[in-house]
Specification:
35% of the residues lie in helices and 21% in strands. α13 runs antiparallel to α14, α13 crosses α16 and α17 packs antiparallel against α18. Strands 1, 2, 3, 4, 11 and 12 form a 6-stranded mixed beta sheet that branches. Strands 24, 25, 28, 29 and 33 form a 5-stranded mixed beta sheet that branches. The protein has a 5-stranded antiparallel beta sheet with strand order 32-31-30-27-34, with no helix packed on it. Among the domains are: 114 residues, Substrate Binding Domain Of DNAk, Chain A, domain 1; 182 residues, no CATH class. 46% of the residues are buried. β30 and β31 form a beta hairpin. The chain has 838 residues and is of the alpha+beta class.
């Protein structure tokens, strides 16, 4: 059965949906009849969800209730310099932002703190609902566009948002590539024999991309990429906002409810108006607590002065792409303007100066080009990959509704909306993963009935699973492209007409990597696997001459980074990671050969195939999100401490301690792999450290209290042995219950009692204890036990001189002990090891 795919331009400021209807991409208006939905999510006074223009409508009455520009934060870490700059520039009435549990970002929507992925899923869910109601078709799959210069974690975050909204995401498509699709389909038929070098200049609301592409009939290749993921029209709004508040409004009172929202809205309107008129008049009222007003003017020259540095930077990035691809402006046939900010006259003027006015395109609507291209891509895709992480099955026909290997659904997930926080959840979920609200009994809305009308004869009796009309036997519209020559609507996945053989004006693109992608090695360097500009999808590539040197590590980590720094992996951006537990086949300090193959699929996801030593080949899809490096290292160190403690003292641990350490081992391993725990990672690590330290101290002082009680009685001590025995029993009881507060109290009590024994005496006690447990060479062991027996005898007869001499002898012999250290092993940095060169 053919299933329709929705094309989505998930924009920073506006989002647009498109589907292939009758072989051509068609914009789907939202429930308010708008061609674009403002990328805004908010709640009203009673907590009801508001999306798009309805959310913006309450921003001045309910400051802090509306989230905009969330795309600039998706897949980013709170500590990133760019993120901190973006947060500093947010308007005063923007919702609060904080660092999330895993080091990312959270924004407050109403009374709930949500991640950018969850907020984007709410928006995508609304886009899907409106599109289905408009088209009369269910959309179970989607093509979602992303800026070409997004990092791998950002790509992954957008795909995660799509899946959370209930889609199977066929492609996360770079926005310039989508725009070139739209340009190719709109080209004239008489241009069929022309190959065209196209430069896509994409200046959107939150990002800037520049791409060099080669297109022609049945051909599409991406040659070069550049950009800035934190530069766009939102920055121009912020510049105008700052100018108005700091220079034009002077000392006026701006503390009234909604003042910040009104000034921000005025800045946005002014930016748009100045694209058409040389002067924009601004009226702001009311202002301040007393309801004042202000009227002023901003000229186009004023605005261009504010943004000239940013526009100059976009031109520098454009020239950089030309240099990297060995091209000049004269080699470019067409410059496509994409994104609302390309309407700014300064942008067009400078591009015309660089490339020539005749090359700068104005034929494709810059606001709709990306969305139209997403719809076209939906008509070109013929296969998909299984969305399940462990399953590596690809090239599955679109007609399948489940993976043939693992039975994972290929039609997305039926979703419900949480009534409290509004985040979508899979039907059947009993508790909201975001806010823990009770979702029991909620059911997904009934799917929209698919249209089955034949476009040839008008028959309405066709089954939704039919591919041809039951009356006229003509093919039904399945979402493919319309032939520019014979007008036939083709099946999805075809790049040439199945009727007349004519090539379409676009094709499945060969994408390129924006930056070097490489494997982090154990010495901190990077083995570049896919240099910048590598076309993908790729075949498998071998990484030669690798080995694993265990050095007591418990896990082998494949970490990939993107960036130009081959001498220091830490200077690059995280790309993706997979952690493989090391078995006992590699002994401590052992070395095994590592065979590793890597490939990139059409969705820019990296796949690994590897074999350690003589083991079997393993496969993995690279996880493109991870915890912060510092948290990962801390988790690895703690995991090493836990492993060491259990290995050294396993027989002495209580059942409750074994259970806690097993749970900690699993959770720390999860954290190392970058997988979510559903709780604050900083808080978890603090609790884990406290647990490990408390258990380690309790075990140590349980032993010391037992030794002190027994040996103290042997040396004739009167009070202290009984008190130490009580402390030992209290520690045992606390450890049996894993009562951490009681363990800390009992440990401190035992430590205090132990300190009442002079140093020379307790060292003699420990020497006798270790000798009894075989922790000396045999000759030394006999000497220690003999000296201890003589010390007991000297004590019983009150011979102080002999006692002193025997204490000195026992203290000297104690230095020969082979007892295990009661603390963690000290080696490299953590329990994880990276591949190294042979």
């Amino acid at each position: 059965m053919p299933y329709r795919t929705l094309g989505i331009d998930l924009g920073t400021t506006n989002s647009v949906t498109v589907w292939m209807d009758g072989g051509v991409p068609v914009l789907l208006p939202n429930r308010h009849g708008e061609q674009a939905t403002v990328s805004a999510v908010g709640v009203d006074a009673d907590g009801s969800l508001l999306v798009g223009s309805e959310a913006l409508g309450v921003r001045d009455q309910l400051p802090g209730s509306v989230i905009t520009e969330v795309k600039r934060l998706i897949g980013r870490r709170h500590a990133d310099d760019d993120v901190q700059r973006l947060l500093d520039e947010r308007p005063a009435d923007a919702p609060p932002v904080r660092e999330s549990m895993d080091g990312g970002v959270e924004l407050r929507l109403g009374t709930h703190w949500l991640t950018p992925v969850q907020i984007s899923a709410i928006l995508l869910r609304r886009l899907r609902t409106d599109a289905e109601n408009t088209a009369g078709e269910p959309f179970r799959r989607a093509v979602i566009t992303v800026p070409a210069y997004f990092t791998e974690p950002q790509y992954a975050a957008v795909q995660e948002a799509g899946e959370l909204a209930g889609f199977t995401v066929l492609r996360t498509l770079p926005e310039p590539t989508a725009a070139a699709h739209a340009f190719g389909v709109e080209r004239l038929v008489q241009d069929d024999d022309d190959m065209c070098s196209v430069l896509v200049y994409d200046l959107g609301g939150g990002t800037f991309d520049v791409s060099l592409l080669i297109t022609g009939p049945g051909y599409f290749e991406v040659f070069g990429l550049g950009g800035d993921k934190a530069l766009g029209g939102a920055d121009f709004d912020s510049a105008l906002y700052r100018m108005l508040t700091e220079k034009r409004l002077g000392d006026r009172d701006l503390s009234g409810t909604g003042d910040a929202a009104r000034i921000r809205a005025a800045a946005e309107r002014t930016k748009i108006e100045l694209s058409d008129v040389p002067v924009s008049e601004i009226i702001l009222a009311p202002l301040g607590k007393n309801g004042g007003s202000w009227t002023g003017k901003v000229t186009r020259a004023d605005f261009e002065e504010l943004i000239s540095a940013d526009i100059t930077r976009t031109l520098e990035l454009t020239r950089g792409v030309l240099r990297e691809t060995s091209r000049t402006p004269d080699d470019i046939d067409k410059v496509l303007l994409v994104g609302g900010s390309t309407r700014i006259p300064l942008v067009r003027r400078l591009l015309c100066e660089l490339f020539g006015e005749e090359k700068v395109s104005s034929g494709t609507d810059p606001m709709a080009a990306v969305a139209l291209g997403a719809g076209i891509e939906a008509g070109l895709v013929s296969t998909l990959a299984c969305p399940s992480g462990p399953c590596l099955t690809t090239e599955i026909p679109l007609t399948e509704n489940a993976c043939p290997d693992c039975d994972t659904s290929l039609l997305g997930t039926a979703t419900i909306d949480c009534p409290d926080c509004h985040v979508p959840a899979a039907e059947g979920t009993t508790s909201c993963p975001a806010c823990a609200a009770d979702l029991s009994g909620l059911r997904a809305a009934a799917p929209v009935a698919a249209r089955a009308e034949c476009p040839h004869c008008g028959c309405r009796q066709n089954s939704t699973s039919s591919t041809v009309c039951q009356d006229c036997d003509q093919p039904l519209d399945a979402g493919g492209l319309k032939c520019p020559q014979c007008g036939m609507v083709n099946a999805t996945g075809l790049t040439a007409c199945s009727g007349c053989g004519a090539l379409f004006h676009t094709d499945q693109p060969e994408q390129v990597t924006a930056q070097n992608l490489g494997l982090a090695l154990d010495d901190g360097t990077v083995a570049v696997v896919f240099p910048a500009g590598t076309t993908y999808p790729t075949d498998w590539r071998n990484i030669e001459d690798l080995q694993v040197r265990r050095d007591d590590a418990t896990a082998l980590t494949f970490r990939f980074v993107e960036g130009p720094h081959v001498k220091s992996q830490a200077r690059n951006e995280f790309c993706g990671q997979h952690t493989h537990p090391l078995g006992t086949d590699i002994g401590s300090g052992g070395v095994e050969r590592l065979v590793l193959r890597v490939k990139i699929d059409g969705n820019r996801t990296m796949h690994l195939a590897y074999r350690v030593g003589e083991g079997k080949e393993e496969g993995a899809r690279l996880r493109r999100s991870a915890v912060a490096d510092g948290i990962g290292r801390d988790a690895a160190r703690l995991l090493d401490e836990v492993s060491t403690h259990v290995a050294h003292f396993g027989d002495e641990l209580t059942a409750a301690e074994h259970d806690v350490f097993a749970e900690l081992t699993e959770q720390l391993g999860t954290t190392m792999r970058g997988e979510p725990l559903g709780r604050s990672l900083d808080g978890f690590l603090d609790e884990a450290r406290d647990t490990v330290e408390t258990c380690r101290n309790a075990r140590s002082w349980t032993a010391n209290a037992s030794i002190g009680a027994r040996r103290g009685r042997e040396l004739g001590m009167v009070r202290l042995p009984g008190e130490l025995a009580d402390a030992h029993h209290a520690l045992d009881a606390a450890r049996e219950r894993m009562n951490l507060p009681a363990m800390r109290t009992a440990t401190e009590n035992a430590r205090s009692l132990w300190r009442q024994i002079d140093t020379v005496t307790w060292r003699s006690m420990l020497a006798a204890h270790n000798a009894e447990h075989g922790r000396f060479r045999e000759s030394v062991r006999r000497s220690v036990l003999t000296a201890w027996d003589e010390l007991r005898a000297a004590t019983s007869r009150g011979d102080y001189a002999a006692q002193d001499a025997l204490h000195v002898k026992l203290n000297d012999l104690a230095g020969h002990s082979q007892a295990p250290a009661p603390t963690a092993r000290k080696h490299r940095d953590s329990a994880q090891v990276f591949p190294e060169r042979r």
